[in-house]
Amino acid sequence: MNFMQALKMAIKCIRTNKARSFLTMLGVIIGVGSVISAVAYAQGSTKSMTDMIRELGTNTLTVSVFNRGSNRNVEYEDLIQFKDENPEYFAMLAPTLSASITAKNAGTNRSTPLVGTSPDYKDINNIDVSAGRFLLDLDIDLRNNVAVVGSTVVNELYGGENPVGSYIKLNGYRFKIVGVLTEVQSGRQGGSDDRIIIPVSVAQRLSRSQSITNFTILVDESASVSDAIDVLTEYLTDALRDSNQFRIMNSEEILSTLDELTQTQMLMLGGIASISLLVGGIGIMNIMLVSVTERTREIGIRKAIGAKRRSVMLQFLIEAVILTGIGGMIGVALAFAAIRFVIGTMVPPVYSLPWTGLSFGISLATGVMFGIFPAWKASSLNPIDALRAQ
């Protein structure tokens, strides 16, 4: 029996037992779909953050202050004074106080990221407003309860209508909406459109803390980034009395760190999802062994009329590969649908062809690996004993 005959017989057997064949493929479908979807989510998250970081440019410094076991800190006024005293190095500075708050309007509420910052935040992060205005220095000086909201907040709390001039409650406090951020991620929940920006001085009052733990500085185009880092390091070391109490990173360092974290995350998620492929392979082997038992008499008749051992083994091996191959294709299709309609609503959709090919290849390898033993067992049956089977 040649390969094409074995293929036709394998397909006929699979069609005869449609329900069992589908259940056999289910583990592979879930495994392949899980691997591709998990990796797509990791890559989409990274792409979202990478795009934001790249928009900052290479002359942007991000500073984190740890305040570990120290009562010394830096305040917004101190940072502004430092920037003004070094105009040859620093062009802009924006503090960032982040928190999650409950935003409420007319009986509808939602949990939303809150950012307390200054007017420079707009230019440093290359964002714009589609209606109204951004924060002003006057808002910070007078501690005005004003807010600039993202399009996601507008859609969910105001039905998509222009809310400028309206009021919103943030953790029970009343704020006037003075601007709406220009939509950049199609109103995706959890993205750049899902945030509320308020003056840093008001955020400090809400958090009952004057210390700044995160801020971004834009280095002047005429200055050396390394020289600016040296000046900033000297200032923070003097202010905090400890060079280990803070960390300064530029965009390239952040991207490098982010890439390392992404690779680790992808391997971890891919490894976890690959367990499903292993389970699916074991399921295929079990079902194929059951199939061998059910078809013992058929195998005996084929061997009695001259079928060679390799022909019987080839047929069962082809069946296993077809099952995993079809299961892999269905898994890929479902994963792409999940990326488009589910994952794409949270992070930018990313279709990784290398991971797709790897997942599909592993599914085929699973069919071969777990199909060998049932195929070998079928081909090893004694034709006389097989014909006696009921």
Please characterize this protein's 3D structure.
- With 390 residues, the protein is α+β, with helices and mostly antiparallel strands.
- It folds into two domains: 3-50 and 258-388, no CATH class; 71-241, no CATH class.
- Helix content is 58%, strand content 17%.
- The protein has 13 helices and eleven strands.
- Strands 3-4-9-6-8-7 form a six-stranded mixed β-barrel. Strands 2-10-1-11 form a four-stranded antiparallel β-sheet.
- β7 and β8 form a beta hairpin.
Question: Which features would summarize this protein structure in a list?
Answer:
390 residues; 2 domains; 17% strand; four-stranded antiparallel beta sheet; 13 helices; alpha+beta; single chain; elongated
Quick overview:
The chain has 13 helices and eleven strands.
Characterize the overall form: elongated
User: Spans with pLDDT under 50 lasting ≥5 residues?
Assistant: none
Structural class: alpha+beta
Approximate helicity band: 55-70%
Number of helices: 13
End-to-end span in angstroms? 26 Å
Sheet having the most strands: 6 strands, mixed, barrel
One letter per element, helices H and strands E, the order comes to HHEHEEEHEHEHEEEHEHEHHHHH
Strand content: 15-25%
Radius of gyration: 31 Å
How many domains make up the coordinates? 2
Strand order of the largest sheet: 3-4-9-6-8-7
Total DSSP E strands? 11
Return the average pLDDT rounded to an integer: 82
